[in-house]
Design goal:
122 residues, mainly beta, 7-stranded mixed β-sheet, 4-stranded antiparallel β-sheet
Length: 122
């Protein structure tokens, strides 16, 4: 019932900024919390950020706090992850997810985007 489409990834240099998107079907903003995860080759899936739209709460992993920001456009039913001062270690496939609560645990989410590749060169 919910479809999430990731986009906006690309190749950037260290220190650059990039915004990745998550377009959702239906009224996802009013019904679900959203999370962002990433996975690099040979690494485990890693929590990045989450937002409870109804509660106005945001959460960030220590590795991205102060650099990444969650935002949304309710008219377009789209969530964004604005990434600044990107580092080579940020290189990964980034996934958005929707679920009942904002959580750092991937298993708590019900729906997932297909992911978008972000590559940061040094």
């Amino acid at each position: 019932q919910v479809q999430l489409v990731n986009s906006g990834g690309g190749l950037v240099q260290a220190g650059d900024s990039l915004r990745v998107s998550c377009a959702a079907s239906g009224r996802t903003f009013s019904r679900y919390a959203m999370g962002w995860f990433r996975q690099a080759p040979g690494k485990e899936r890693e929590f990045v950020a989450a937002v409870s739209w109804s509660g106005g709460r945001t959460y960030y992993a220590d590795s991205v706090k102060g650099r990444f920001t969650i935002s949304g456009d309710s008219a377009e039913n789209t969530a964004y992850l604005q990434m600044k001062d990107l580092k080579p270690e940020d290189t990964a496939v980034y996934y958005c997810a929707a679920g009942p609560i904002a959580s750092s645990t991937w298993s708590m989410y019900n729906y997932w985007g297909q992911g978008t590749q972000v590559t940061v060169s040094s």
